[in-house]
Amino acid sequence: MKTETIQFRSKSERERDVDLERNYHEIGIPAIAAASQCCCKQKQAKATADRASSDALLAAD
Questions:
Q1: Distance CA 17, CA 37 (A)
Q2: How far is residue 11 from each of residues 7, 16, 21, 22, 27, measured CA to CA in Å?
Q3: b/e string for 12-23 if b means 16 or more Cβ within 10 A?
Q4: CA–CA distance from 31 to each of 21, 35, 47 (Å)?
Q5: What pLDDT, on the 0 to 100 scale, is given for residue 60?
Q6: Which site from 20, 22, 50, 61 is most exposed, i.e. has the minimal number of CB atoms within 10 Å?
């Protein structure tokens, strides 16, 4: 048997969500995606550099 609970939000919580959406609507999803992509590229470059340095250490042994 599946039981679902409904979470009720207060009027102030709903208004805060509407305000956030209104204020940050101009930023939009493309800006978030671009920032995320940049961050992921930096992490990938660091991982590649770390892997190359560990491979060099193993080759030296």
A1: 26
A2: 13, 9, 15, 16, 25
A3: eeeeeeeeeeee
A4: 15, 6, 25
A5: 63
A6: 61
